[in-house]
Known about the structure:
Elements: H1 21-31, H2 49-56, E1 65-71, H3 73-76, E2 86-91, H4 94-102
Amino acid sequence: MSHLSLGYQVTRLVFDAGQPYEKFRGRYEAAVPPADPWPGDRAGRHARWQDVAADANGSGPHGFVLYWRADMTPGLTGSAELRPCTAYLMGHHAVPEKAYLHDRR
C-alpha cells in the first residue's frame, strides 16, 4: 500500500462582524445557501461539469454554496462559558474543476 501526504496552506480570516452572532450567522446563511447535491434532473447519472457549474451560478448572490455546516459550540468552548461557534465548508462549483484539472490529488 502506498501513502501520499500533501501539504497545503490555509488562510484564516478573523474580523469583527459588528453585530450579534445570530444576526450575522443568519445573514451569512442567506448569502450562502446549501448546495443541491443533484442539481436539476442529474441525480444518478453523469453530468458535464460545465452544466453543474452553470446550475450553481444562481445559487447565491455571489455564486457560493454551502457544502457542510456544523455546530462547534460544545467542542470548542469550555463548560463554564458556552459561546456559539459554527464551522462551514463553502465554495463555488466552478472552482473545483480548475483545481482538479491542475492537480487531481
